[in-house]
Amino acid sequence: xxxxxxxxxxxxxxxxxxxxGNDVVVVVSAMGKTTDNLISLANQVSSxxxxxxxxxxxxxxxxxxxxxxxxxxxxxxxxxxxxxxxxVGIITDTVHTKAxxxxxxxxxxxxxxxxxxxxxxxGFQGVSTEREITTLGRxxxxxxxxxxxxxxxxxxxxxxxxxxxxxxxxxRIVPQARKLQQLDFEExxxxxxxxxxxxxxxxxxxxxxHNVPLHVRSSFTWETGTxxxxxxxxxxxKETAMEEPIISGVVQDxxxxxxxxxxxxxxxxxxxxxxxxxxxxxxxxxxxxQNTSKDGRTDISFTAPKADLKKALExxxxxxxxxxxxxxxxxxxxxxxxxxGAGMRTSPGIAAKMFRVLAAAGVNIEMxxxxxxxxxxxVDAASTETALRALHTAFGLDSxxxxxxxxxxxx
Amino acid sequence: xxxxxxxxxxxxxxxxxxxxGNDVVVVVSAMGKTTDNLISLANQVSSxxxxxxxxxxxxxxxxxxxxxxxxxxxxxxxxxxxxxxxxVGIITDTVHTKAxxxxxxxxxxxxxxxxxxxxxxxGFQGVSTEREITTLGRxxxxxxxxxxxxxxxxxxxxxxxxxxxxxxxxxRIVPQARKLQQLDFEExxxxxxxxxxxxxxxxxxxxxxHNVPLHVRSSFTWETGTxxxxxxxxxxxKETAMEEPIISGVVQDxxxxxxxxxxxxxxxxxxxxxxxxxxxxxxxxxxxxQNTSKDGRTDISFTAPKADLKKALExxxxxxxxxxxxxxxxxxxxxxxxxxGAGMRTSPGIAAKMFRVLAAAGVNIEMxxxxxxxxxxxVDAASTETALRALHTAFGLDSxxxxxxxxxxxx
Lengths: 411, 411
Fold this sequence. Notes:
Two copies of one chain form a homodimer. Chain A is α/β, with parallel strands linked by helices. Chain A is 35% helix and 25% strand. Chain A has helices spanning 4-19, 34-45, 51-75, 107-114, 140-151, 185-193, 201-209, 238-242, 270-280, 309-322, 350-360, 384-394, and strands spanning 25-28, 80-83, 90-92, 101-104, 118-122, 125-128, 133-135, 157-161, 182-184, 214-218, 226-229, 249-265, 288-290, 297-305, 327-340, 365-371, 374-380. In chain A, helix 1 (4-19) packs across helix 3 (51-75) and helix 9 packs antiparallel against helix 10.
């Protein structure tokens, strides 16, 4: 929802889908800079932003969008009706600015759909069990869409973004990147967790848990985007089965810092002493590496969001004294590079090949972590482009039809 | 609520009043250009603005203001909580964009006040008996404030505007204009009806009907403004009783056009044929003058808002043909000049003096209408300044203490 032009484009897509016999519920986000502008206003009037009032302030952005989308639809002959999160019965807990959805009632949505209307719902917001307006935090609008799709048992939840789908790598860095035709939920989860910005992790988790097929696409074009589906629901043919790729994509995350606690005693309870206070401060620690012990002492490194670096250092410096560590060092900006692919489960040696490729490209690996379908390494931030391009080429993502299966028909 | 500075100024006033032992409910309007910007967005996306969606869109303006006011209050140590019209139980009828208040529940307001909090309420909005968000139309925020003051049996409803009170004339036109210390509801009603922009007619009516004392003042200064009170509640002393003025003020309204239907048959039913379709089109006809009949035919002139001139002319031209009128003429811009004063009831000759003063100033009178406490004339728009200044001086408004009574003490 960037601007009025975008709203009109979305209305065209909605009208098309509706006219082809589908019931449509539209979930909107705030327009372009609306949220930033509101936060700027808040900063101008006060340094104190109570969560309840901040939520009241920020939820206006989606309300503006939803009213405008309804007007744009009315203009092209589609009968639409807007609903706030509260009106549509998105019941949340009472945690302002990052509420969790407890229940979706949806009675008014069903009424509107039965009456042949398109329903337009404000994303990112709900009403708490205490009758207060709440917001869902990051990725809130996507989460609203998936939650409503699940509650209404929708055929598909289309996510309109500013890109045409999920790519094998960030096309701004790897020009040869290709759009993926489909992905399974686990792969999308790993990609989101590894730093892909296309879909919020939380909304993918919600979609997986409720088995809601997602279609990631752009409101600026009519082309098919990327489907995110349960593995069993994926479209395959003999050819695609034969050429099913091992790797779906390479993802970078450049928003992290690395902190190392040097020379701590290698004994039980040290990790807990370090990471418990970080967790209590809501600092999202990502990768953790502990060196081999030497003379009964070791180094512990971990990554955390750049935005939390200052707070994390304060905590770690305090803990370091308590546990008798020699020193605390940090690198403000590191890059995490991840290879993601469901095929990894049955293909050994992916990690080894990854390390070889990076070594050949002259990229030094600082940390490593893996899941069954992902290998992530932390490298110097300056090596991001080199690492991404080398891996994209080496794992055969540059060319060929990774997923050549026919697409689900547009209804 | 012009901008962040204004919001902080309002917060200071609220904090002062709260700290002096008062329970305070603040009703906010949208900031400066917010409403215009929202309407502009609506025009950009669509030429169709369903009332329900327009109300949803416009009500965001007050929500932004109320959250910001709460934050500004929190910053100076005042515990405040915001409420939408819906949350506070302002129940309206179902007429979108100009709903009427049916009931004010106010339970959550009373709870907040009992808890020692300042309540900040979004003006201009309510929730309909059909659970839809509605807006109250023009003067909606003032009306909300008066309605809440009545429901809560408040000591006073303070109206903060961009002027320091109600003046004997518009100070931009008549530099000698003085601020009035008090007025009764009837006078304020006549002034609002005659074109004074300080208070919306509707909110004054509401205040009179529920006997809510109003205090019109500026958020930029701490000086006392103008009190609008029931006649019996006005503060008087011997001196003021002796010098009670006949005229409280001179008011201009330059937002009207004049239409004349020339040469219509002087017979029953003609007026109805003319004015019924205008009323059906929601055109607010103000003054009507019918000339003395001559040869069984007459001319009918009336004034209507400039904004409705085009629509009014279409209707009148249609009717003119049907009723066999000779012609329809119009003046796009006329000025209505009104003298208002409760003392007129007991002072004969005010109208005659007014006509004499205007004649001496070379101002031609085109139409006349009167009430018991008001005389209005329509003059050429170019004569507005001359007429206002001549009347202001002639009726002794330039100098002297028209209302020299002591003011109600600030609590």
